[in-house]
């Protein structure tokens, strides 16, 4: 589906070139001229997770300041913003990765629905939380084990011992991650033998095997070629029917192509949140407009 909304912005200024340039360069296509932005999703989608007046401190360094942001069910939310604005920090709060370092501090709440669980509350067990919320990192990080054992890892943690059940679930996870066809004859081979794109799909399969409710993706395609990127984008769009997805990306086309909602962050704050089509075509804030049109960041 494409949107027919007319862009209201002119193309961003082209950086002044050397004086000797005489021919007028062709206009740079911008996202605001693009027809790839998805239409607004129904606003009625239930909220799966709600970040509420949330701040985070790396000891004395404040990385997030009073962020409030919903993540809707069966939708993809893109987190965008310049380097260092706190995107990874926020994702890592969701599965309590920061607990490993004493001195780190969560302030405010991140509520996981339907049970209204405050996932940053001290009494919530991070291990059981990670069964519900899985994360895939920017750099593929398979374990130094076989392809089979990588996907089996979470299943074994959950107490699944039956060989036939493990095999069945591993096949489903690898099929879901669009990797099964490429690895079904070498499941016992080391995961490190796979290409980067395959390793990233393996990490997605490992995350999916746990049947998470929320999938966090931190720049999952930044190290991949266009073909692998496109496969993973297709996969993410398919997955949203059954898992709530948050994706961090620096690729504005990617955010526009696959996400339903977009949150723009800057200097640890949430600047703007809305349906992706709105944020890209009619941003409310000047900073958002500058960022999505490539004027800064
Ligand atoms: N372990 C840490 N200790 C102290 N400060 C940190 C730590 N990790 C990150 N920061 C700081 O927190 C801020 C947010 O970092 P974060 O990695 O979340 O940014 P980001 O938006 O993911 O950036 P990028 O797009 O470059 O990945 C930055 O100022 C960063 O320097
Ligand atoms: Mg990051």
Topology:
Layout: E1 47-58, E2 61-72, E3 76-80, H1 87-94, E4 105-112, E5 117-118, H2 126-132, E6 133-136, H3 147-157, H4 163-176, H5 180-183, H6 196-209, E7 214-218, H7 226-239, E8 244-248, H8 252-258, E9 261-266, E10 269-275, H9 276-281, H10 286-292
Parallel strand pairs: 3-8, 3-9, 6-7, 7-8
Antiparallel strand pairs: 1-2, 1-4, 4-5, 9-10
Helix pairs in contact: 3-4, 3-6, 4-6
The structure holds adenosine-5'-triphosphate and magnesium ion (MG).
CATH superfamily: P-loop containing nucleotide triphosphate hydrolases
Distance between the termini: 29 Å
Name the average pLDDT. Answer: 87
Helix content: 25-40%
Bulk shape: globular
| H/E topology pattern | EEEHEEHEHHHHEHEHEEHH
Content-based structural category: alpha/beta
Our estimate of the beta-strand percent is: 15-25%
Radius of gyration: 20 Å
Please identify the top-level CATH class. Alpha Beta
CATH topology: Rossmann fold
Largest sheet properties: 6 strands, mixed
The oligomerization state is: single chain
Q: Write down the domain tally.
A: 1
Task: State the low-pLDDT regions, or none.
Answer: 1-22
Heteromolecules bound: adenosine-5'-triphosphate, magnesium ion
Number of strands: 10
Main sheet: strand order: 6-7-8-3-9-10
**What's the architecture in CATH terms?**
3-Layer(aba) Sandwich
Number of helices: 10
Word description of this protein:
This protein is of the alpha/beta class and 297 residues long. The protein has one domain (43-292): Rossmann fold. It is built from 10 helices and 10 strands. It has helices spanning 87-94, 126-132, 147-157, 163-176, 180-183, 196-209, 226-239, 252-258, 276-281, 286-292; strands at residues 47-58, 61-72, 76-80, 105-112, 117-118, 133-136, 214-218, 244-248, 261-266, 269-275. The strands form 2 sheets. The chain has a 6-stranded mixed beta sheet with strand order 6-7-8-3-9-10, with helices on both faces. Strands 2-1-4-5 form a 4-stranded antiparallel beta sheet, covered by helices on one side. Strand 9 (261-266) and strand 10 form a beta hairpin. Helix 3 (147-157) packs across helix 4. It starts with 46 loop residues before the first strand and ends in a 5-residue tail after the last helix. Residues 1-22 have low confidence and may be disordered. Bound molecules: adenosine-5'-triphosphate and magnesium ion. The site of magnesium ion (MG) has 2 residues, from helix 1.
């Amino acid at each position: 589906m494409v949107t027919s909304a007319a862009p209201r912005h002119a193309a961003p200024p082209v950086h002044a070139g050397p004086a000797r340039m005489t021919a007028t360069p062709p206009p740079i296509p911008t996202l605001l001229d693009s027809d790839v932005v998805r239409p607004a999703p129904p606003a009625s989608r239930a909220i799966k997770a709600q970040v509420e007046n949330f701040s985070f401190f790396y000891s004395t360094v404040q990385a997030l300041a009073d962020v409030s942001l919903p993540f809707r069910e069966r939708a993809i939310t893109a987190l965008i913003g310049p380097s260092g604005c706190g995107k990874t920090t926020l994702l890592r709060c969701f599965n309590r990765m920061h607990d490993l370092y004493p001195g780190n501090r969560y302030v405010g709440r991140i509520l996981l629905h339907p049970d209204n669980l405050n996932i940053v509350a001290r009494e919530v067990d991070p291990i059981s939380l990670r069964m519900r919320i899985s994360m895939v990192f920017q750099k593929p990080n398979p374990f130094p084990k076989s392809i089979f054992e990588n996907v089996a890892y979470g299943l074994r943690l959950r107490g699944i011992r039956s060989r036939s059940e493990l095999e069945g679930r591993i096949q489903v996870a690898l099929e879901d991650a669009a990797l099964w066809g490429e690895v079904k004859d070498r499941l016992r081979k080391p995961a490190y033998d796979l290409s980067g794109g395959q390793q990233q799909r393996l990490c997605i399969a490992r995350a999916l095997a746990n049947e998470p409710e929320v999938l966090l993706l931190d720049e999952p395609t930044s190290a991949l070629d266009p073909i692998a990127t496109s496969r993973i984008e297709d996969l993410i769009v398919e997955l949203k029917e059954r898992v709530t997805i948050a994706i961090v990306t620096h690729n504005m086309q990617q955010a526009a192509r696959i996400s339903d909602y977009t949150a723009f962050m800057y200097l640890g704050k949430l600047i703007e949140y809305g349906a992706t089509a709105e944020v890209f075509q009619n941003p409310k804030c000047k900073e958002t407009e500058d960022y999505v049109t490539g004027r800064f960041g």
